[in-house]
Design a protein that fits this description.
By secondary structure, the protein is an alpha/beta fold. Helices cover 46% and strands 12% of the residues. The chain has 10 helices and 6 strands, in the order E-H-H-H-H-H-E-H-H-E-H-E-H-E-H-E.
Length: 217
């Protein structure tokens, strides 16, 4: 299968950020009386924006999800990411290969806010590959699982979605890529379960970034 462009999710695909973000979230919920393990927090929130889970959060904490609380979360999250963020194993080589293979037609299409995405990519040395081609769901009419961010990225690259490969790691993101009309491959580091990713519409699940060196022809 040949692809003219590759659109990457960010968290969990380019950077190993999800356990850091959910660790901060779990700690802040515990301060409000809602206790859960990191694994439980990740199961509930990975792939979703915090705001999209407002009703669940308010039901468990008994408190309104305020803008002030969200701002504190963003500040604490960004501080931890800045100190601890690392790249996904093998991603530098895969991105460099695809950047050359697709003649620069690669982009980031994330559900996260732009500041977070750009900060993380700069910290791990990937920003240069994507500069000017970073898209945030926060800046779209709708975020994932809707296709808006992927459609915007494909339009910017001037490549029809049907000729784009989307690289995702969550059912929410896969749903967005499929809805955009792209082919979606899902990254699942062992021992992550493959079945939910396939059920969401992933055409392939892979466990190592070297698999991305085989795309196109």
């Amino acid at each position: 299968m040949s692809f003219q462009a590759v659109l990457f999710d960010c968290d969990g695909v380019l950077v190993d950020s999800e356990s850091i973000t959910c660790g901060v979230l779990r700690d802040m919920f515990e301060e409000q009386g809602w206790r859960m393990t990191l694994a439980e927090c990740m199961q509930r929130f990975v792939g979703h924006t915090v705001k999209s889970q407002r009703s669940m959060i308010e039901a468990h904490t008994g408190q309104p999800l305020t803008d002030a609380w969200l701002q504190q979360f963003f500040e604490r999250r960004n501080q931890q990411l800045d100190a601890r963020i690392t790249a996904i194993d093998g991603i530098h080589e895969a991105v460099a290969h695809l950047h050359a293979h697709c003649e620069g037609r690669i982009a980031v299409a994330s559900g996260a806010d732009r500041f977070k995405v750009e900060m993380m990519l700069k910290k791990v040395g990937l920003h240069g590959f994507f500069e000017g081609r970073i898209f945030s769901g926060h800046e779209m009419p709708r975020s994932k699982p809707h296709p808006d961010v992927y459609l915007a990225a494909a339009a910017h690259l001037q490549v029809p979605p049907a000729h784009c490969l989307v690289v995702e790691d969550t059912p929410v993101g896969i749903t967005a890529g499929v809805a955009a009309g792209a082919t979606v491959w899902a990254y699942a580091a062992p021992p992550a379960a493959h079945e939910p990713l396939l059920q969401a519409g992933a055409a392939r699940v892979f466990a190592g970034m070297d698999a991305l060196r085989l795309t196109g022809g």
